[in-house]
């Protein structure tokens, strides 16, 4: 009898402890705080959507988002200028080395999947390219659309700048680390790449999956159209995860922890899907 009573009391104590922890976590996440997020223009729309809902749920928390590139996010986290770095690529070894020198421990949370989509103007008749053809276009070996089944027109190449995580993925998976040709124009963000192709009939560029719409045309790569389905099943060849990096794993119950784990919620999944990306959860 005493044993059962002791076990019952322990169970009650455990439940009370759990309730207290949950309350403390919610209280900590809800109290006045500020979160500074910097980094990827690809992850930017997701983080912006998260921030808007998060601040409604936690009115005393101010979330500021700055999207200028994954490299900028990594640098900001290492220098202590942000709480969370949003990145569309993994941190480089040299970035980790700098972080360790400054006693920063980068810890990543994968929040979604994405595809790097090759886009052209909607009027362009070209609907499919191989990775080799895309690479040769950006190397300057293919300079006219007629060489890949299009019209007789000079190709205008648009690329992201080198601080971009999208550039890093494209450089690795498409360019195979080869340097792009001298005539390639660089832009600072996905929206700029999208706008440049939309306004230029003979342009080609690459953007994240969430930036596809009827103002540009995605082409098949290796005969696979970029979509949520082809990214999920592994068919699309230029796919990648999207990350939030923090200095160490955030303390459970903290504001940072609540934000970086928001993607696990049903609302987080809905927001990721609404922005055109691929959630990791399924409700």
Task: List the SSEs and their pairings.
Elements: H1 2-30, E1 33-39, H2 44-57, E2 61-67, H3 70-78, E3 84-87, H4 93-101, E4 106-120, E5 128-129, H5 131-139, E6 156-160, H6 165-173, E7 185-187, H7 190-199, E8 203-208, E9 217-218, E10 220-221, H8 228-232, E11 239-247, H9 255-260, H10 266-274, E12 278-279
Parallel strand pairs: 1-2, 1-3, 5-10, 6-7, 6-8
Antiparallel strand pairs: 3-11, 4-8, 4-9, 4-11, 4-12
Question: What does this 3D model show about the protein?
Answer:
By secondary structure, the chain is α/β, with parallel strands linked by helices. The protein folds into 2 domains: 2-113 and 242-279, D-Maltodextrin-Binding Protein, domain 2, CATH 3.40.190; 114-239, D-Maltodextrin-Binding Protein, domain 2 (3-Layer(aba) Sandwich), CATH 3.40.190.10. Helices cover 39% and strands 23% of the residues. It has 10 helices and 12 strands. Strands 1, 2, 3, 4, 6, 7, 8, 9, 11 and 12 form a 10-stranded mixed β-sheet that branches. Strand 6 (156-160), helix 6 (165-173) and strand 7 (185-187) form a beta-alpha-beta unit. The longest helix has 29 residues, at 2-30. It is globular. The two termini are 44 Å apart. Mean pLDDT is 89; it is low at 1-30.
């Amino acid at each position: 009898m005493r044993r059962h009573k002791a076990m019952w009391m322990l169970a009650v104590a455990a439940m009370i402890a759990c309730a207290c922890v949950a309350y403390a976590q919610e209280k900590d996440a809800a109290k006045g705080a500020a979160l500074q997020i910097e980094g990827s223009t690809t992850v930017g729309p997701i983080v912006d959507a998260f921030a808007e809902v998060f601040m409604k749920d936690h009115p005393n928390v101010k979330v500021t988002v700055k999207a200028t590139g994954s490299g900028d996010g990594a640098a900001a986290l290492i220098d202590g200028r942000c709480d969370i770095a949003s990145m569309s690529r993994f941190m480089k070894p040299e970035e980790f080395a700098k972080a360790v020198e400054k006693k920063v421990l980068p810890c990543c949370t994968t929040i979604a999947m994405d595809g790097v989509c090759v886009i052209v103007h909607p009027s362009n008749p070209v609907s499919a390219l191989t990775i080799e053809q895309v690479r040769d276009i950006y190397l300057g070996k293919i300079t006219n659309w007629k060489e890949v089944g299009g019209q007789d027109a000079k190709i205008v190449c648009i690329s992201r700048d080198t601080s971009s995580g999208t550039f890093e993925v494209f450089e690795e998976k498409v360019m195979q680390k080869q340097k792009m040709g001298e005539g390639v124009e660089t832009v600072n963000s996905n929206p700029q790449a999208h706008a440049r192709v939309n306004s230029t009939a003979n342009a080609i560029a690459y953007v994240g999956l969430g930036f596809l719409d009827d103002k540009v045309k995605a082409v098949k790569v290796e005969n696979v159209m970029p979509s949520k389905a082809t990214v999920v099943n592994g068919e699309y060849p230029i796919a990648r995860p999207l990350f939030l990096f923090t200095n160490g794993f955030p303390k459970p119950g903290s504001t940072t922890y609540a934000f970086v784990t928001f993607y696990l919620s049903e609302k987080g999944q809905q927001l990721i899907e609404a922005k055109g990306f691929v959630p990791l959860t399924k409700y």
